[in-house]
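DUF6533 domain-containing protein
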Amino acid sequence: MNAQLAASCLGLTLTVCDTYLTRKEEKTLIWRSPFRITIVKTLYILSRYLGLTCQMYNVARSAHWKHQYITVPQHSCASHLLFKTLGVQSLLTTLHIILMLRVYALYNKSLNIALILVLLHALRFSATIWTIVRYWDIYKADFGYICFTTESLELKVGLAVFILAEILYQSLIHTLIAKKTWTLPSTWSKTPTLTSVLTRDGFYVFFAIFVAMMAFVGGSYEKGPAPLFIQPLIIFTLSCAGSRVIIRLQCCGNESSSNSQEQGMLSTVAWDTRTFPSSDA
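Predicted structure tokens:
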């Protein structure tokens, strides 16, 4: 039970620290007046505060279990597992939408690119649903006293499809970005530019997701308390990635806007396409 609480506290601490470190940028870019709701702001709020909510819930529930039970009831374990699954999938979907909007804006809101992105996301979502259905019996499985399933998931077909689908999805999204930015001199500039931020942040996100998927693989074979740390750390990673991608791109966009005396860099659809290099789709 101590491991469960420690994992939850670690996840909350990291998420709160990241929120504190980005508080000034968040206040300037998200909460500035006059406040206007946009898709990008909504995605930021979801990414940041859904992550915080999940972490606080984990801590509250872990503390309750520690002081209330010696062995956690099976129904509580099953409901908590369902909550963790929904939390991770919600944050992952939010991150997917943020990444797709970047590509959509980069390609000057091309209809063809929009259709490709919708198709990719539909296929990715189908793989997720199939995996959840495939492993649905785990919600009825027996759990140990620390509320961890006594059955090893192992790298079966369902989990393998989920991991491969996510890695393939991320690869395609970042390939679309690289196709547009790779040959532009500004991409390799030491001074942050829109294209360099797009490319570097894309690499960081891809690396973080890849590590998270490998953690899933390792945790699927482990029956001890170590896998309890995976979900809080993944929640932190997804929340941090989504919010920082928006902040960094918007900060860079505002600097470009100031230099070129353009206005309205945060549109109601996505980042204004005028902030991106002009090239054929």
